[in-house]
């Protein structure tokens, strides 16, 4: 496997377990800057294999995991990606509330959690996202006004 030493984009549109992609890229994972994995029928959660690799994705700026039939709660591990600017988890089957730690993603500019099964209140911690200019929470069962500083 070639070792990538500069940032690169990972765009996947195949039907293989996500963990196998991560294992394939190995240490090169730390150089991914944009990850787009859309319209893949994962029919379940992201899984532990993927969660273990979040720590190595230090250069990641954008994640698009839309339209993948992902379920379960939104992974808290996402909040360890402190350089994340764009996060799109739309059109999946995530359930539960928006994770409180979402406010830790300070540079986040765009957040799309639309068309999932999210419920509960829109958290006050979202007001900590001072760079947020695009927010889509539509087609969920969320309540409360969006905090004013977002």
UniProtKB/TrEMBL annotation:
Subcellular location, record wording: Membrane
Keyword match Manganese: no
Topology in membrane: Single-pass type I membrane protein
GO MF terms, alphabetically ordered: kinase activity
InterPro entries linked: Leu-rich_rpt, LRR_dom_sf, RLP23-like
Keyword presence, Glycoprotein: yes
Coiled-coil ranges per UniProt: none
Major localization listed first in the record, in broad terms: membrane
GO cellular component: membrane
One Pfam family linked to the record: LRR_1
Keywords of the record: Glycoprotein, Kinase, Leucine-rich repeat, Membrane, Receptor, Repeat, Signal, Transferase, Transmembrane, Transmembrane helix
Name by which UniProt lists this protein: Putative LRR receptor-like serine/threonine-protein kinase
The species this protein was found in: Gossypium australe
Top-level taxonomy: Eukaryota, Viridiplantae, Streptophyta, Embryophyta, Tracheophyta
């Amino acid at each position: 496997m070639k070792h990538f030493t500069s940032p690169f984009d990972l765009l996947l549109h195949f039907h293989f377990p996500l963990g196998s992609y991560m294992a394939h890229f190995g240490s090169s994972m730390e150089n991914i800057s944009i990850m787009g994995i859309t319209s893949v029928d994962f029919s379940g959660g992201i899984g532990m294999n993927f969660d273990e690799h979040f720590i190595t994705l230090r250069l990641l700026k954008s994640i698009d995991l839309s339209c993948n039939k992902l379920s379960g709660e939104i992974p808290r591990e996402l909040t360890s990606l402190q350089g994340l600017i764009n996060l799109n988890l739309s059109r999946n089957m995530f359930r539960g509330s928006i994770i409180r730690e979402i406010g830790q993603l300070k540079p986040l500019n765009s957040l799309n959690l639309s068309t999932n099964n999210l419920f509960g209140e829109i958290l006050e911690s979202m007001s900590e996202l001072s760079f947020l200019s695009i927010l889509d929470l539509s087609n969920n069962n969320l309540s409360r006004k969006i905090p004013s500083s977002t």
